[in-house]
Design goal:
165 residues, alpha+beta, Cathepsin D, subunit A, domain 1, globular
């Protein structure tokens, strides 16, 4: 049952563009299955006086307030990461949220927004998307190629995979 308090929550889709620390237009995946939020950063270091520094999409950020956390990935592997507060704008709301700092180069989205960040602030409508993930675009391209000539498609992709095994 939807209570009255929740009726006024802003609706966001399964992915959206966000702003973090004043950097606008960053693609983010909204993941209600993930507990915490994560952001791609480069060049993480801690100075001798205990200041965490990193590059956030080319912008140097420093934080005195940070923690180390153990994060378990979706494939079950554990990793130690730093967790730091960042200012993020999702939809029309500015939020101070804690993000684990990681290398997300291989992910479709450089930012993952977990449920702790959006709890009691948004309703997620998974049928809505602002961004088409790269994997979905590749699948659409492959299916167009398959429809044009199924035999050539099979020779090009499926037989090649069978030979590699």
């Amino acid at each position: 049952m939807l209570n009255i308090k929740r009726k006024n929550l802003e609706i966001i889709g399964a992915n959206t563009f966000v702003s973090i620390e004043g950097i606008k237009g960053i693609p983010a995946k909204i993941d209600t299955g993930a507990d915490s939020s994560s952001v791609h950063v480069d060049n993480i270091s801690v100075s001798e006086d205990g200041v965490l520094s990193f590059e956030l999409f080319g912008k140097k950020i420093e934080r005195k307030e940070f923690k180390a956390v153990v994060v378990r990935s979706s494939n079950g592997e554990e990793e130690i990461r730093y967790r730091a507060p960042l200012s993020i704008v999702i939809g029309s709301k500015r939020i101070k949220a804690f993000f684990t700092l990681s290398n997300r180069e291989k992910n479709n989205f450089p930012v993952l927004i977990g449920r702790k960040t959006i709890k009691n602030k948004f309703i997620v409508d998974v049928s809505e998307r602002e961004i088409e993930p790269k994997a979905r675009l590749r699948s659409k391209k492959l299916n167009r190629e398959l429809q044009k000539n199924p035999f050539k498609f099979h020779e090009k992709y499926i037989k090649l995979n069978e030979k590699e095994k």
